[in-house]
Amino acid sequence: MRTDQPVPHRPEGPARAPEIVGSDPAGFPWSVFHDRHPLLFQQLRDALPYPPDALRRLAEFEAEAVHGVIGPLEPSAHDRADWDLWSRPYLGLPWTEPPFLWAEVYFYRRLLSATGYFGPGPMRGVDPFAPLKEAELLGPAVDQELAALDRLAGLDQAELSCALLLSSLWGNRADLSFEISADRADGPPAQESAPGALLVDDRAAVLSHLRDRPPGRVCLIADNAARELLPDLVLLDHLLGSGLAASATLYVKPQPCYVSDATVADTLAALRRLRDAPGAAGRTGARLWRAVGSGRLAVSTHAFFCAPFPFRDMPDDLRAELASATLTLTKGDLNYRRLVEDRHWPATTPFAAVTAAFPGPVAALRTVKSDVVVGLDPATAAALESHPGWRTSGTRAVLQFRP
Protein backbone atom coordinates (compact mmCIF):
# COMPACT_ATOMS: atom_id res chain seq x y z
CA MET A 1 0.00 0.00 0.00
CA ARG A 2 0.95 3.63 -0.19
CA THR A 3 3.22 5.09 2.43
CA ASP A 4 2.72 8.73 1.55
CA GLN A 5 -0.24 10.98 2.10
CA PRO A 6 -2.72 10.64 -0.81
CA VAL A 7 -2.54 13.38 -3.42
CA PRO A 8 -5.84 14.15 -5.17
CA HIS A 9 -5.87 13.49 -8.91
CA ARG A 10 -7.09 16.19 -11.24
CA PRO A 11 -9.63 17.33 -12.22
CA GLU A 12 -10.61 18.82 -8.90
CA GLY A 13 -14.36 19.14 -9.53
CA PRO A 14 -16.47 21.52 -7.44
CA ALA A 15 -15.19 23.22 -4.29
CA ARG A 16 -15.03 20.43 -1.74
CA ALA A 17 -17.67 20.48 0.97
CA PRO A 18 -16.80 19.77 4.62
CA GLU A 19 -16.11 16.13 5.47
CA ILE A 20 -18.74 14.24 7.42
CA VAL A 21 -17.64 13.59 11.01
CA GLY A 22 -19.33 11.92 13.97
CA SER A 23 -19.23 14.60 16.66
CA ASP A 24 -22.91 15.65 16.44
CA PRO A 25 -24.90 13.59 19.01
CA ALA A 26 -27.97 13.93 16.79
CA GLY A 27 -26.14 12.74 13.67
CA PHE A 28 -26.01 9.37 11.96
CA PRO A 29 -22.24 8.73 12.47
CA TRP A 30 -22.63 9.29 16.22
CA SER A 31 -25.34 6.62 16.31
CA VAL A 32 -23.06 4.18 14.46
CA PHE A 33 -20.37 4.44 17.13
CA HIS A 34 -22.69 4.60 20.15
CA ASP A 35 -25.57 2.34 19.10
CA ARG A 36 -24.52 0.04 16.26
CA HIS A 37 -21.01 -0.84 17.37
CA PRO A 38 -21.91 -2.05 20.90
CA LEU A 39 -24.47 -4.39 19.31
CA LEU A 40 -21.82 -5.59 16.86
CA PHE A 41 -19.41 -6.54 19.65
CA GLN A 42 -22.07 -8.69 21.27
CA GLN A 43 -22.94 -10.33 17.96
CA LEU A 44 -19.29 -11.23 17.39
CA ARG A 45 -18.98 -12.80 20.84
CA ASP A 46 -22.12 -14.83 20.18
CA ALA A 47 -21.04 -15.92 16.69
CA LEU A 48 -17.75 -17.70 17.46
CA PRO A 49 -16.16 -19.37 20.53
CA TYR A 50 -13.28 -16.97 21.05
CA PRO A 51 -10.42 -17.97 23.39
CA PRO A 52 -9.77 -15.87 26.51
CA ASP A 53 -7.11 -13.64 24.96
CA ALA A 54 -9.39 -12.70 22.06
CA LEU A 55 -12.30 -12.01 24.42
CA ARG A 56 -10.02 -9.77 26.47
CA ARG A 57 -8.88 -7.85 23.38
CA LEU A 58 -12.47 -7.46 22.18
CA ALA A 59 -13.53 -6.07 25.56
CA GLU A 60 -10.60 -3.65 25.63
CA PHE A 61 -11.29 -2.44 22.12
CA GLU A 62 -15.01 -2.08 22.81
CA ALA A 63 -14.23 0.18 25.77
CA GLU A 64 -11.90 2.25 23.58
CA ALA A 65 -14.26 2.49 20.61
CA VAL A 66 -17.35 3.45 22.62
CA HIS A 67 -15.91 5.48 25.48
CA GLY A 68 -12.20 6.07 24.85
CA VAL A 69 -9.83 7.69 22.38
CA ILE A 70 -8.20 6.34 19.23
CA GLY A 71 -5.16 4.17 19.81
CA PRO A 72 -2.56 2.74 17.40
CA LEU A 73 -2.32 -0.71 15.89
CA GLU A 74 -0.31 -3.31 17.77
CA PRO A 75 3.46 -2.95 17.16
CA SER A 76 3.66 -6.27 15.29
CA ALA A 77 0.94 -5.41 12.76
CA HIS A 78 2.02 -6.08 9.18
CA ASP A 79 0.53 -2.76 8.04
CA ARG A 80 1.58 -0.70 11.07
CA ALA A 81 3.76 1.67 8.99
CA ASP A 82 0.87 2.62 6.71
CA TRP A 83 -1.61 3.10 9.55
CA ASP A 84 0.89 5.07 11.64
CA LEU A 85 1.04 7.57 8.79
CA TRP A 86 -2.69 7.57 8.09
CA SER A 87 -3.57 7.81 11.80
CA ARG A 88 -1.15 10.55 12.76
CA PRO A 89 -3.71 13.40 12.80
CA TYR A 90 -6.25 11.38 14.79
CA LEU A 91 -4.50 9.31 17.48
CA GLY A 92 -5.68 10.38 20.94
CA LEU A 93 -8.95 11.87 19.66
CA PRO A 94 -12.41 10.49 20.42
CA TRP A 95 -13.59 8.13 17.69
CA THR A 96 -16.30 10.55 16.60
CA GLU A 97 -13.95 13.43 15.72
CA PRO A 98 -12.06 12.22 12.60
CA PRO A 99 -13.75 11.99 9.20
CA PHE A 100 -16.44 9.33 9.42
CA LEU A 101 -15.10 7.34 6.46
CA TRP A 102 -11.62 7.14 7.96
CA ALA A 103 -12.90 6.25 11.44
CA GLU A 104 -15.16 3.43 10.20
CA VAL A 105 -12.44 1.80 8.10
CA TYR A 106 -9.93 2.02 10.96
CA PHE A 107 -12.51 0.66 13.40
CA TYR A 108 -12.90 -2.52 11.37
CA ARG A 109 -9.14 -2.87 10.91
CA ARG A 110 -8.71 -2.68 14.70
CA LEU A 111 -11.59 -5.11 15.17
CA LEU A 112 -9.76 -7.72 13.07
CA SER A 113 -6.73 -7.35 15.31
CA ALA A 114 -8.88 -7.83 18.40
CA THR A 115 -10.35 -11.08 17.08
CA GLY A 116 -6.89 -12.46 16.27
CA TYR A 117 -7.36 -12.46 12.50
CA PHE A 118 -3.75 -11.43 11.85
CA GLY A 119 -2.21 -13.06 14.93
CA PRO A 120 -0.29 -16.31 15.40
CA GLY A 121 -3.05 -18.07 17.36
CA PRO A 122 -5.97 -20.34 16.39
CA MET A 123 -8.14 -17.45 15.10
CA ARG A 124 -5.62 -16.43 12.45
CA GLY A 125 -7.43 -15.96 9.14
CA VAL A 126 -10.85 -16.69 10.66
CA ASP A 127 -13.43 -14.25 9.30
CA PRO A 128 -15.27 -12.98 12.41
CA PHE A 129 -18.30 -12.14 10.28
CA ALA A 130 -18.46 -15.50 8.47
CA PRO A 131 -21.24 -17.02 10.63
CA LEU A 132 -23.49 -14.03 9.92
CA LYS A 133 -22.80 -14.14 6.19
CA GLU A 134 -23.16 -17.92 5.95
CA ALA A 135 -26.49 -17.90 7.78
CA GLU A 136 -27.84 -15.34 5.34
CA LEU A 137 -26.50 -17.14 2.26
CA LEU A 138 -28.08 -20.45 3.30
CA GLY A 139 -31.38 -18.94 4.50
CA PRO A 140 -34.80 -19.58 2.98
CA ALA A 141 -35.07 -16.02 1.68
CA VAL A 142 -32.24 -16.78 -0.73
CA ASP A 143 -34.07 -19.89 -1.98
CA GLN A 144 -37.05 -17.71 -2.87
CA GLU A 145 -34.92 -15.07 -4.57
CA LEU A 146 -33.06 -17.65 -6.67
CA ALA A 147 -36.31 -19.33 -7.66
CA ALA A 148 -37.56 -15.97 -8.93
CA LEU A 149 -34.98 -16.16 -11.73
CA ASP A 150 -37.17 -18.79 -13.40
CA ARG A 151 -39.86 -16.16 -13.90
CA LEU A 152 -37.59 -13.92 -15.97
CA ALA A 153 -37.45 -16.29 -18.93
CA GLY A 154 -40.16 -14.44 -20.87
CA LEU A 155 -38.45 -11.04 -20.82
CA ASP A 156 -36.69 -9.70 -23.89
CA GLN A 157 -33.04 -8.65 -23.61
CA ALA A 158 -33.76 -4.98 -22.91
CA GLU A 159 -36.33 -5.79 -20.23
CA LEU A 160 -34.05 -8.38 -18.67
CA SER A 161 -31.12 -5.95 -18.57
CA CYS A 162 -33.23 -3.35 -16.77
CA ALA A 163 -34.66 -5.93 -14.35
CA LEU A 164 -31.24 -7.31 -13.40
CA LEU A 165 -29.77 -3.84 -12.88
CA LEU A 166 -32.63 -3.11 -10.49
CA SER A 167 -32.18 -6.48 -8.78
CA SER A 168 -28.51 -5.71 -8.19
CA LEU A 169 -29.39 -2.22 -6.95
CA TRP A 170 -32.04 -3.31 -4.45
CA GLY A 171 -29.92 -6.26 -3.39
CA ASN A 172 -27.90 -3.61 -1.58
CA ARG A 173 -30.60 -3.63 1.10
CA ALA A 174 -29.09 -6.97 2.22
CA ASP A 175 -26.52 -5.31 4.48
CA LEU A 176 -25.86 -7.02 7.81
CA SER A 177 -24.18 -3.98 9.35
CA PHE A 178 -27.26 -1.90 8.50
CA GLU A 179 -29.58 -4.57 9.89
CA ILE A 180 -27.79 -4.52 13.24
CA SER A 181 -29.37 -1.14 13.94
CA ALA A 182 -32.36 -1.35 11.59
CA ASP A 183 -33.79 -4.33 13.47
CA ARG A 184 -33.98 -2.34 16.70
CA ALA A 185 -37.37 -1.08 17.83
CA ASP A 186 -36.23 2.49 17.25
CA GLY A 187 -34.60 1.68 13.91
CA PRO A 188 -35.73 3.05 10.54
CA PRO A 189 -39.11 2.04 9.14
CA ALA A 190 -39.31 -0.67 6.52
CA GLN A 191 -41.18 1.63 4.14
CA GLU A 192 -41.90 5.32 3.77
CA SER A 193 -44.36 7.33 1.72
CA ALA A 194 -43.64 9.45 -1.37
CA PRO A 195 -41.48 10.70 -2.99
CA GLY A 196 -40.51 7.55 -4.89
CA ALA A 197 -37.94 5.05 -3.75
CA LEU A 198 -35.67 5.27 -6.82
CA LEU A 199 -34.52 8.88 -6.74
CA VAL A 200 -32.30 8.76 -9.84
CA ASP A 201 -32.70 6.12 -12.56
CA ASP A 202 -29.96 6.16 -15.22
CA ARG A 203 -30.53 2.57 -16.36
CA ALA A 204 -31.25 3.61 -19.93
CA ALA A 205 -28.02 5.61 -20.15
CA VAL A 206 -25.98 2.74 -18.70
CA LEU A 207 -27.38 0.22 -21.17
CA SER A 208 -27.07 2.61 -24.10
CA HIS A 209 -23.42 3.16 -23.17
CA LEU A 210 -22.80 -0.60 -23.32
CA ARG A 211 -24.80 -1.19 -26.51
CA ASP A 212 -23.27 1.69 -28.48
CA ARG A 213 -19.68 0.41 -28.42
CA PRO A 214 -17.90 -2.89 -29.04
CA PRO A 215 -18.11 -5.27 -26.05
CA GLY A 216 -15.31 -4.60 -23.59
CA ARG A 217 -14.49 -5.30 -19.97
CA VAL A 218 -17.05 -4.41 -17.30
CA CYS A 219 -15.83 -4.06 -13.72
CA LEU A 220 -18.05 -4.40 -10.67
CA ILE A 221 -16.72 -3.21 -7.31
CA ALA A 222 -18.76 -5.32 -4.91
CA ASP A 223 -20.18 -4.32 -1.57
CA ASN A 224 -21.88 -7.01 0.51
CA ALA A 225 -21.60 -10.79 0.41
CA ALA A 226 -24.37 -13.40 0.48
CA ARG A 227 -27.81 -12.08 -0.58
CA GLU A 228 -26.41 -8.98 -2.27
CA LEU A 229 -23.55 -10.68 -4.07
CA LEU A 230 -25.86 -13.20 -5.75
CA PRO A 231 -27.75 -10.63 -7.90
CA ASP A 232 -24.40 -8.97 -8.69
CA LEU A 233 -23.14 -12.28 -10.09
CA VAL A 234 -26.38 -12.83 -11.99
CA LEU A 235 -26.01 -9.36 -13.54
CA LEU A 236 -22.44 -10.12 -14.65
CA ASP A 237 -23.59 -13.42 -16.16
CA HIS A 238 -26.24 -11.54 -18.14
CA LEU A 239 -23.79 -8.91 -19.39
CA LEU A 240 -21.43 -11.65 -20.57
CA GLY A 241 -24.15 -13.79 -22.11
CA SER A 242 -25.94 -10.95 -23.89
CA GLY A 243 -22.79 -9.60 -25.52
CA LEU A 244 -22.89 -6.32 -23.60
CA ALA A 245 -19.53 -7.29 -22.09
CA ALA A 246 -16.70 -9.39 -23.52
CA SER A 247 -15.22 -9.96 -20.07
CA ALA A 248 -15.84 -8.90 -16.49
CA THR A 249 -13.85 -8.29 -13.33
CA LEU A 250 -15.45 -8.58 -9.90
CA TYR A 251 -13.50 -6.64 -7.27
CA VAL A 252 -13.91 -7.72 -3.64
CA LYS A 253 -12.18 -6.94 -0.34
CA PRO A 254 -8.78 -8.58 0.37
CA GLN A 255 -9.80 -9.25 3.99
CA PRO A 256 -12.98 -9.02 6.09
CA CYS A 257 -14.09 -5.40 6.30
CA TYR A 258 -17.31 -4.05 7.72
CA VAL A 259 -19.80 -6.75 8.74
CA SER A 260 -20.85 -8.18 5.41
CA ASP A 261 -18.42 -6.90 2.79
CA ALA A 262 -17.57 -9.53 0.20
CA THR A 263 -14.18 -11.27 0.13
CA VAL A 264 -12.83 -13.89 -2.27
CA ALA A 265 -14.03 -16.63 0.09
CA ASP A 266 -17.52 -15.11 0.09
CA THR A 267 -17.48 -15.01 -3.71
CA LEU A 268 -16.60 -18.69 -3.94
CA ALA A 269 -19.40 -19.50 -1.50
CA ALA A 270 -21.87 -17.49 -3.59
CA LEU A 271 -20.78 -19.24 -6.79
CA ARG A 272 -21.31 -22.63 -5.13
CA ARG A 273 -24.73 -21.53 -3.88
CA LEU A 274 -25.75 -20.56 -7.40
CA ARG A 275 -24.30 -23.65 -9.09
CA ASP A 276 -26.03 -26.00 -6.66
CA ALA A 277 -29.44 -24.32 -6.98
CA PRO A 278 -32.17 -25.75 -9.21
CA GLY A 279 -33.52 -24.16 -12.37
CA ALA A 280 -32.27 -20.92 -13.89
CA ALA A 281 -30.11 -20.10 -10.87
CA GLY A 282 -28.18 -23.35 -11.22
CA ARG A 283 -27.64 -22.78 -14.93
CA THR A 284 -26.41 -19.26 -14.16
CA GLY A 285 -24.00 -20.64 -11.56
CA ALA A 286 -22.64 -23.21 -14.01
CA ARG A 287 -22.02 -20.52 -16.63
CA LEU A 288 -20.24 -18.32 -14.13
CA TRP A 289 -18.14 -21.26 -12.96
CA ARG A 290 -17.02 -21.84 -16.55
CA ALA A 291 -16.47 -18.11 -17.08
CA VAL A 292 -14.01 -18.03 -14.19
CA GLY A 293 -12.22 -21.05 -15.66
CA SER A 294 -11.98 -19.47 -19.10
CA GLY A 295 -10.87 -16.07 -17.79
CA ARG A 296 -13.97 -14.22 -19.01
CA LEU A 297 -14.84 -13.54 -15.36
CA ALA A 298 -11.98 -12.56 -13.07
CA VAL A 299 -12.27 -12.23 -9.30
CA SER A 300 -9.78 -9.64 -8.13
CA THR A 301 -8.88 -7.55 -5.13
CA HIS A 302 -6.57 -4.75 -4.03
CA ALA A 303 -5.31 -3.52 -0.68
CA PHE A 304 -6.75 -0.08 -1.45
CA PHE A 305 -10.28 -1.38 -0.94
CA CYS A 306 -9.48 -1.65 2.80
CA ALA A 307 -7.73 1.74 3.01
CA PRO A 308 -9.50 4.80 4.47
CA PHE A 309 -9.51 6.96 1.34
CA PRO A 310 -11.94 8.00 -1.41
CA PHE A 311 -11.51 6.64 -4.91
CA ARG A 312 -9.95 9.89 -6.10
CA ASP A 313 -6.84 8.80 -4.15
CA MET A 314 -6.53 5.26 -5.54
CA PRO A 315 -3.00 4.13 -6.45
CA ASP A 316 -1.82 4.18 -10.02
CA ASP A 317 -1.98 0.43 -10.65
CA LEU A 318 -5.66 0.21 -9.70
CA ARG A 319 -6.36 3.45 -11.58
CA ALA A 320 -4.89 1.92 -14.74
CA GLU A 321 -7.03 -1.22 -14.36
CA LEU A 322 -10.26 0.73 -14.04
CA ALA A 323 -9.31 3.24 -16.75
CA SER A 324 -9.20 0.39 -19.27
CA ALA A 325 -12.76 -0.76 -18.49
CA THR A 326 -15.76 0.00 -20.70
CA LEU A 327 -17.74 0.58 -17.52
CA THR A 328 -17.24 0.25 -13.77
CA LEU A 329 -20.24 -0.46 -11.57
CA THR A 330 -19.81 0.50 -7.92
CA LYS A 331 -22.15 -1.21 -5.49
CA GLY A 332 -23.47 -0.03 -2.19
CA ASP A 333 -23.23 2.72 0.33
CA LEU A 334 -19.54 2.54 1.26
CA ASN A 335 -18.40 2.55 -2.36
CA TYR A 336 -20.72 5.49 -3.03
CA ARG A 337 -19.16 7.40 -0.14
CA ARG A 338 -15.72 6.66 -1.58
CA LEU A 339 -16.82 7.56 -5.10
CA VAL A 340 -18.29 10.99 -4.34
CA GLU A 341 -16.32 11.54 -1.09
CA ASP A 342 -18.06 11.45 2.27
CA ARG A 343 -18.85 15.16 2.46
CA HIS A 344 -21.75 17.48 3.18
CA TRP A 345 -22.45 18.13 -0.50
CA PRO A 346 -25.73 19.82 -1.34
CA ALA A 347 -27.96 17.03 -2.66
CA THR A 348 -28.22 18.83 -6.01
CA THR A 349 -24.44 18.78 -6.61
CA PRO A 350 -23.94 17.18 -10.05
CA PHE A 351 -22.87 13.53 -9.88
CA ALA A 352 -20.57 14.00 -12.86
CA ALA A 353 -18.72 16.84 -11.17
CA VAL A 354 -17.85 14.99 -7.96
CA THR A 355 -16.89 11.79 -9.80
CA ALA A 356 -14.70 13.51 -12.39
CA ALA A 357 -11.51 12.03 -10.90
CA PHE A 358 -12.71 8.44 -11.35
CA PRO A 359 -10.70 6.84 -14.17
CA GLY A 360 -13.38 5.91 -16.69
CA PRO A 361 -17.13 5.57 -17.14
CA VAL A 362 -18.80 4.75 -13.83
CA ALA A 363 -22.26 3.89 -12.55
CA ALA A 364 -23.26 3.81 -8.89
CA LEU A 365 -25.93 1.35 -7.70
CA ARG A 366 -26.65 2.40 -4.14
CA THR A 367 -29.35 2.08 -1.50
CA VAL A 368 -29.13 5.28 0.56
CA LYS A 369 -28.06 4.43 4.12
CA SER A 370 -25.81 7.33 5.14
CA ASP A 371 -25.77 11.10 4.92
CA VAL A 372 -24.04 11.86 1.63
CA VAL A 373 -26.02 11.99 -1.60
CA VAL A 374 -25.56 14.00 -4.81
CA GLY A 375 -27.15 14.32 -8.23
CA LEU A 376 -30.78 14.92 -7.21
CA ASP A 377 -32.95 17.33 -9.11
CA PRO A 378 -34.04 20.36 -7.05
CA ALA A 379 -37.70 19.31 -6.80
CA THR A 380 -36.84 15.84 -5.48
CA ALA A 381 -34.30 17.23 -3.02
CA ALA A 382 -36.81 19.77 -1.71
CA ALA A 383 -39.56 17.16 -1.32
CA LEU A 384 -37.28 14.80 0.59
CA GLU A 385 -36.45 17.38 3.22
CA SER A 386 -39.94 16.89 4.69
CA HIS A 387 -39.04 13.23 5.41
CA PRO A 388 -36.59 13.21 8.35
CA GLY A 389 -34.15 10.31 8.20
CA TRP A 390 -34.59 9.64 4.48
CA ARG A 391 -30.82 9.61 3.99
CA THR A 392 -30.25 6.77 6.46
CA SER A 393 -33.40 4.63 6.38
CA GLY A 394 -32.38 2.39 3.46
CA THR A 395 -35.75 2.89 1.77
CA ARG A 396 -34.49 4.95 -1.17
CA ALA A 397 -31.87 4.41 -3.83
CA VAL A 398 -29.99 5.98 -6.71
CA LEU A 399 -28.71 4.50 -9.96
CA GLN A 400 -26.40 7.18 -11.33
CA PHE A 401 -24.13 7.17 -14.37
CA ARG A 402 -21.23 9.33 -15.52
CA PRO A 403 -19.96 8.49 -19.03
From TrEMBL:
Region: Disordered, residue numbers: 1-21
Basic and acidic residues bias (residue ranges): 1-13
Catalytic activity: beta-D-fructose 1-phosphate + H2O = D-fructose + phosphate; beta-D-fructose 6-phosphate = dihydroxyacetone + D-glyceraldehyde 3-phosphate
Alphabetically ordered keywords of this record: Hydrolase, Manganese, Metal-binding
Highest taxon, organism lineage: Bacteria
Segments forming domain Damage-control phosphatase ARMT1-like metal-binding: 34-379
Gene3D superfamilies: Uncharacterised protein PF01937, DUF89, domain 3
Cofactor: Mn(2+)
Coiled-coil region list: none
Entry similarity comment: Belongs to the damage-control phosphatase family. Sugar phosphate phosphatase III subfamily.
Protein name, per record: Damage-control phosphatase ARMT1 family protein
